[in-house]
Amino acid sequence: LAGIVILILIVIIAPLTMANSANLLNVGSSLQGPSLHHWLGTDELGRDLLARLLVGTRSSLELALGAVGISLVLGIPLGTLSAMTRGPSRRILLRGIDVLLAFPALIIAIYVGAVVGPGEWGPVLGVGIAGSIGFARLSSNLAISVRNAEYVQAARVIGVRPFKILVRHVLPNIIETLIIATTVSISIAIITISGLSYLGLGVQPPYFDWGTLLTDGVNNINQIPLSAVAPSVAIALSAMIFGFFGEALARALNPLLSQTRGSSKRGRALSLEMIGAVPSQTLDLEFEDTRDSLLEAEPELAVIEALANPDNSVPTARRESRRSRRASASLPRLDETSEGLTASGDVLELEVLDLSISFPGRHGPVDIVSNVSFSMKIGERLGIVGESGSGKSMTAFGISQLVPYPGRPRGRVIVRGQDLDRISSRDLPRFLSQQMAIVFQDPMSSLNPALTIGRQMTETVTEYGKMKHGEAMKLAAERLAEVQLPSPQKQLHRRSHELSGGMRQRVAIAMALMNEPKLLIADEPTTALDVTVQAQIMDLLYAINSERHVSIILISHNLGLVKENCDRVLVMYAGKIVEDIAASQLDSPQHPYTRLLLGAVPDVTRPRDEPLIDIPGQVPDPEARIVGCSFRERCPSAIAQCATETPPLEPLEDGSRVACWVAIRERSSV
Ligand code: SF4
Prior knowledge:
The protein is of the alpha/beta class. The chain is 50% helix and 11% strand. It contains 24 helices and twelve strands. It has helices spanning 2-23, 49-84, 88-101, 105-116, 121-147, 150-157, 162-198, 210-219, 226-253, 255-258, 264-274, 287-297, 299-308, 321-328, 392-399, 428-435, 453-462, 469-482, 488-491, 501-513, 531-548, 559-565, 592-599, 661-669, and strands at residues 348-361, 364-377, 381-385, 408-415, 418-419, 436-439, 519-523, 551-556, 568-573, 576-582, 650-651, 657-658. The strands form two sheets. Strands 6-7-8-3-9-10-12-11 form an eight-stranded mixed β-sheet, sandwiched between helices. A four-stranded antiparallel β-sheet has the order 2-1-4-5. A hairpin with a 2-residue loop joins β4 (408-415) and β5. α5 runs antiparallel to α7 (162-198), α7 (162-198) packs antiparallel against α9 and α8 runs antiparallel to α9 (226-253). The chain is elongated, with a radius of gyration of 33 Å. The model is unreliable at 255-338 (pLDDT under 50). Iron/sulfur cluster is lined by residues 591-592, 629, 631-632, 635, 637-639, 642, 647, 660-662. Iron/sulfur cluster (SF4) is lined by residues 591-592, 629, 631-632, 635, 637-639, 642, 647, 660-662.
């Protein structure tokens, strides 16, 4: 920082005080060595070299800053745009940047400089355009890594618009690297522009910068060695100063790094809350209020509610009515010919029909999720279990329209009677934001480290102008209290790194509740937490379901957890549902894979000498073209038919479904 201050002072003071000495011709004292009058000596026209070096600082830095400014203005929008677009246009933009990046920056700078001609503009434009390609690649790489982060996925589910995602989530998380890159670019620009001036493509007399001084100095190096050394040192020193400045700036801007400078008092207070010394607030769920106002505001929802809960009388609207009316006023109308109904005509929460998701493979598209079909009732808790790679999370992405590129979803998703394919792409984010929310596995990565909790939570309701900021902050504090987070007001001003894992997951759940979703998808919400916090989070989800009637999809690899907390369970293997069974029937599952999963669940009632079951083998490679049952290699019950025919997901009399030849045979023979 001291170096930057010194450079700024030189830039301001030197032209005011030393311009005369720098330009005054005195042929009588040409090419003099260092003396008390001329510390660095004089050039061939008798001008003071030190004065010229200091006065030339301004033009050198101005040109470098101008070039980097052009790089930023061209490069960052191009890079972030290419990262935020989807499909082929993204690939075309990225490949275009790659092609340009293949040309050496110096050659581009010299070429543009030569085309523009000698003078200040040539090197500025040349270096600026050459640098913009690097910035475009850097910012696209950074933006792509951030846009796949869970907090961005969650923001997309709640309907935050792409531009806002870019400004609020992507840019703040890449700015630190871009700042460092900018300062490094200034260093490079100083060197490159000086080099172009040295080659005669830059500043022309009577103007001068360090590059022209270096040219003169090299010409006179035999008489006055310092005349070449001094501009070289100035160029190298200023480049180093900008490099160090970038690092210092990034450190100051990074909340994680600056945390080490936080007061110990604050840290102690936080620790007390984390260990539970501060009493927690009571769970104050306002389901009645919220539902009443939704009913009042949205006649279609009243129909849904009446169908789903025929015994409920319509209660009076309370203080949340205005807020909820705003939130639900823009819901698309239910399609009159919509599907998504139960046999008795009740509206289903969700109906998934033949959902398949494919990705490009070595030999063509590969289905990661294959023909998944299921439905869930309003208020139901549905578990999806399976090992890693079974397709359960990708199924959730398919439902929430978050399939990452280049994945291609097929099939239909019907949410509360509304086929998502029949909603325009303009209305879809808003519709989804009012219907569902998603909570991810890792609470650290599902919150944006660059934003305060309050800022992140409120964007879900301030989007589309539904709520003013103050009102939204009040609601956010209420939601934090509902998930039993201590001192909710205080938490709103904290960032995710200031909270413990359990607190972060509570914040993620509170954030998911901001828009009062009807369906909450919890993707391994407790995997990253310790056992006691896991239990608290599951209790919280249970309370949200039972008191708010929010339907829940709980995705987990732990069949024991799902069995305890869900009404129904879908068991997935190799991208397919292999069993759909009521949780109450899980003591006698039909599919061998479900039996093995159950055997692998630790159970305190199990005899101590009975070992946990280890499922042999692994989930098959999705690219493997398997004939017959995909579980065959690992199945202890396999029969000959399993090797030749793929078992269908067959409905059984008790309402469950199973995809297993042996189970189907046994059931049909009963
Ligand atoms: S179909 Fe055959 S291989 Fe597949 S789970 Fe059933 S018994 Fe096992």
